[in-house]
Amino acid sequence: MSSPAREALPRPPVFNAVSAGLLLLSAAWVLLIVATPPGPTDMMVPWLRSVSLMQALIGAACVTLIWLRQGWAFYVYVGLVLLGVLLGLVLRYAIPLLLVGPVLLALYLWALHAGGTGSMWRQMFGGARAAGPGVAYGAAPAMPPPLPTFAVPSTPAPPAPTPPRSPAAPAAAPPAGLDPLEALKRLGALRDSGAITETEFAAKKAELLKRL
Fold first, then answer.
1. What does the alpha-carbon distance between residue 206 and residue 184 come to, in Å, rounded to a whole number?
2. Phi-psi region of 115 (alpha: psi -120 to 50; beta: other; left: phi over 0)
């Protein structure tokens, strides 16, 4: 997301307060290192003052970048705290002094998650905070709903033309001067061969029987 869109999202007040406190702590740490004259510990570990000063400056820069919504700076800050704890173990610091870094880190994590859906954690690393209607911070914009499709009514295909039926040939009638019994035999033969239908056979048979 672009920088103007990020600036439009409000920062939770708890996050602002903890960030300001960490910046003041880093500034006080730098002033303490610069103003304090070298002591016996500095004589034994000559690089301690330079490393402590570097940690304070980098820590202040990380807090500032996180306040500007640069998520990667948080992981640098975590590594800085862990490096401080590791140096404290090497130099055999007291347990309460070793716990300062983890306690500050836990406080910072709580401040990053404060604010529910509007927390800085969700703003930097994505989540349910919406940058616009229906768009989650850090997520791709939602696709518009598909346009409604209207089914085009298909025109029914015209019925296939039926081939014209040839008129049935008239049934062959026996000659008029033929004997009725012989004519009946011929009609039976025509019916059996399929030349005339049963109806035509019955009509001709009735006609011939009338002539008997």
1. 10
2. left
Q: Give the integer Cα–Cα distance in Å for 7 and 40.
A: 48
Residue 61 lies in a domain: yes
pTM reported for the whole predicted model: 0.52
CA gap 77, 61 in Å, rounded: 9
| Residue that is written with structure tokens 């998520």 in the block | 71
Q: What angle do CA 19, 24, 28 make, to 5 degrees?
A: 150
Tell whether 114 and 190 lie within a shared domain: no
Does 146 map to a domain? no
The more confidently predicted of residues 5 and 14 is: 14
Assess contact for 119 and 126: CB atoms under 8 A. no
Looking up tokens 């300062």 gives 100
User: CA-to-CA distance for 161 and 206, rounded, in angstroms?
Assistant: 39
Residues 6 or more apart whose Cβ sits within 8 Å of residue 120: 11, 12, 15, 66, 69, 111, 112
Residue 187 has φ and ψ, to the nearest 5°, of: -60, -40
Look up the domain containing 191 and give its range: 180-211
Rounded Cα gap, residues 154 and 148, in angstroms: 18
What is the rounded average pLDDT for all residues in the chain? Answer: 76
Q: What does the pLDDT look like over 63-99, one tens digit per residue?
A: 999 999 888 999 999 998 888 888 888 888 888 888 8
